[in-house]
Amino acid sequence: MSADTSILKPAPLIEGRITPRELDDAVFAPVESFPTGRWLIAVSVTGAIALLFPICIANTILNGIGTWGVNQPVGWGLAIVNFVFWVGIGHAGTLISAILFLFRQKWRTGIARFAEAMTIFAVFCAMQFPLFHTGRPWLAMFWLIPYPNDQRIYQNFRSPLEWDVFAVGTYGLISFMFWYLGLIPDLATARDRAKHPFRKFVYGLLSVGWSGSNRAWTHYEKAYLMFAGLSTPLVLSVHSIVSFDFAVSVIPGWHTTIFPPYFVAGAIFSGFAMVATLIVILRRMFHLKHIITDNHLDLMNKIVIVTSLMVGYAYAMEFFIAWYGGVAVERYVFMNRAMGPYAWAYWTMVICNVVVPQLLWIRRVRRSVLLMYPIVLLINVGMWFERFVIVITSLHRDYLPSSWGMYIPTWTDIGLFVGSFGIFLTFILLFCRFLPSVSVTEMKAALLHTQSAHGGDHE
Amino acid sequence: MSELRHKQVGVAGLYDDPSALVRAAVEVRRAGYTRWDCHTPYPVHGLDTAMGIPESPVGGIGLLAGFAGLGTAIGLTGWLSAWHYPIHIGGKPLFSWQAFVPIYFELFVLFAGLTVMGLVFALGRLGRWHSPLHDSGIMPEVTCDRFAIVLEASDPNYSEDAARALLAQTGCRDIRPLIEYEEEDDAFL
C-alpha cells in the first residue's frame, strides 16, 4: 500500500466509512420498517394507474383488436412501440449486472440489484403487448411455442416473430434466475435479521436454506460468472433480434443492416436513463445517498452520453445511406420522417436523444441531480418516440401511395401504455419495500477491499 | 433456548477477519478433518484453496448443457421445418440453417442457464432449510459480518477437546458448541 498509487484509485464506492452491520441496517431499513406515508401514497397512485391496464385489456378482449388504432397500412401501432420500448428499458439492468461484472467495474455493485429488478419488470411489461396483439392471448402459447400437437402444425422458425418468442422468453427467464441467484445470500441476511416469525418464515423459504457455506459459495461464484458470461451475448442478441422484426422485412426505413447495433445502443441508452430516473428517487426515498452516490450518477451519465452519440450516429447514417443508396422510396421515407406529418415526433426524438444529452459533457451537470434529472426524463420520452418514429412513419407511407394512411392511437392504446407504466412502477415500489434493493453481500466484499473495514490492524 | 432438548453436533469457531479465517482453514485441513466447513457473509478470496475445495464443475457442465441445447435447437428446427411440417416460402431451402441461428443461440443460453441454476442448488446443497447454525445462533452472525469454521462431530477425526484446541491454536477467541435441537418442528421458526 504505497501512497503514490492512491490518486489512480477510482472514487470511493461509499461515502464515509461504514461497517458491514451499518450497511445491513441502511439497506434493510425500508424492508424492515413499517411503510412510510410517502411510500403508501406513491404505491396507491401507481396502483391506480396500473388498473388502466386490465381495463383496457378487458376492452381489447371483449371487443377485439379493432379497439386499437391499428389498420391498413399501419398494422403495428403503439403495442409494438411499447414492446420495443420496454424490452429496451430492460437492457441497462443486464448490462450493469453482466457486462460491467465481467469488466470488473466495482461501482456497479450499488446499482446492479435495482437495475436487474427493473429489467425483469420491464420485460414483463414488454411481453404483454405482443401477447395481446395476437388477438386471442389465451391461445397464444399454442401458437408461439412448439409443442407436440394432434394437428401436426408447427411454427415457422424462419420468422423473426418466432425468434422473438425464443429471445424474449430466454431473456426474461435468464434475467430472473440471475437476479434470484444474486438475491439468495441477501435473503438469508434478511431471514436472520427478521424478528417476526412470519417474516423469518417467508425470507427463510425464499433463501432456500442458504448458510454462507464456502462449499456452496464455490459453486455460487462459478454460477454467477457463468450467468454473466451467458447474459452478455444474450443482452446483445435480444435487441438485435427485436430489430430483425423490422430489418428482415422489406418496408422502406426498416430494411437496413444498421438496425441491430442501432437498437442495442438505443436500448442501453434508454435503460440507463430509466435507471437514473428511478434510482434518484429510490435513494432519496430510502436514505441510501451514501451507498448510491453522486459518483454513480456521474458514471451512469457517462454511459448515457456515449450511447447518445451512438444513437445520433445511427440517425445520421440512416439518412446518409438513404441518400447514398439511391433508392427513391427509401429517400422519400426519410424525408417524410423529417418533414412529413409525423415530423413533430421525429424532431422530439432528435432533440431529446441527441441534442439535450450533450449537456452531460459538463461534469457539474452529470453530478447534479437537479440538472441531470430533466435530461434523463427527456431521454425516456425521446426513446419512446424513436420507436414511434420507426414503427409508424415507415408503415404509413409504404410502396403503394393508394394505401397511404395515418395512424391515430385510440384511448385503449394510450391506456395500455400508461397502464404498463403503472404496473412497472408498482412492481418497483413493491420490490424496494420487500427485497433488499442493494446487494449487501457484494457490497460487503467490495468494502473489504476499498476501506479495509476488517483486518487493518491484523496485517 | 436451554429448555429445548438438544445435542451437540460439533464445534464452531468464529473470526472477525477473513484473512484469519483463511489461515485457520489451512490449519484445519492440515489436521486432517474432512467433515467441516467455513461460513462467510460473502465469498472470501483464497478460501477455496485453503480448504482444498476442487474447482467447481458448474462452468463445465453448464457449457455442456449449452451444447445440448444447441443440438436440441438444430434438431427441433431442422426436423420440424424440413421434414415434419415443411413450409415452402418463395422456393427457399427447407433446412435454411442461417435463419435458425437465433433459435440455436437462444436455446444454448437457455439450457446452459437452467442447468447452472440447477447445479447451484444440487451441488451447493440448497433447499435444506434446517441447519445447526440456526439452533446454535451462529447464522445471524455469519450472514452479517463474521466468519465461522464449523467442525462436525461426525468427522472420524473429531474429538471435542482436540477440535477446541485446534481452533484456539489458530487464534480463534470465540469457540462455541454447535448444537441441534431434538424437536425440529419449532426450531426453524
* Low confidence ranges of chain A: 453-459
- SSE class of chain A: mainly alpha
- Note the run of SSEs of chain A as H and E: HHHHHHHHHHHHHHHH
Largest inter-chain contact set? A-B, 70 and 67 residues
Content of β-strand of chain B = 5-15%
Shape of chain B: elongated
Describe what is shown at a glance.
Chain A is mainly alpha-helical and 459 residues long. Chain A has one domain.
Write structural notes for this entry.
The complex is a heterodimer of chains A (459) and B (189). Chain A has 459 residues and is mostly helical. Chain A has one domain (13-148, 170-451). Chain A contains 16 helices and no strands. Chain B is built from seven helices and four strands; from the N terminus they run βαβαααααβαβ. Chain B has helices spanning 18-30, 47-51, 58-84, 97-123, 132-135, 139-142, 160-169, and strands at 6-15, 36-39, 147-152, 174-181. A four-stranded antiparallel β-sheet of chain B has the order 2-3-1-4. Chain B is elongated. The two termini of chain B are 13 Å apart. The chains are: A mainly alpha (459), B alpha+beta (189). Chains A and B meet through helix 1, helix 6, helix 7, helix 8 and helix 16 of A and helix 1, strand 2, helix 2, helix 3 and helix 4 of B.
List the helices and strands and how they pair.
The complex is a heterodimer of chains A (459) and B (189).
Chain A: H1 20-32, H2 37-63, H3 78-102, H4 109-133, H5 137-144, H6 160-193, H7 197-206, H8 214-247, H9 259-285, H10 294-325, H11 328-339, H12 343-355, H13 363-367, H14 369-396, H15 411-434, H16 440-451
Helix pairs in contact in A: 1-16, 2-15, 3-4, 3-8, 3-9, 3-14, 4-6, 4-15, 6-7, 6-8, 8-9, 9-10, 9-14, 10-11, 11-12, 12-14
Chain B: E1 6-15, H1 18-30, E2 36-39, H2 47-51, H3 58-84, H4 97-123, H5 132-135, H6 139-142, E3 147-152, H7 160-169, E4 174-181
Antiparallel strand pairs in B: 1-3, 1-4, 2-3
Helix pairs in contact in B: 3-4
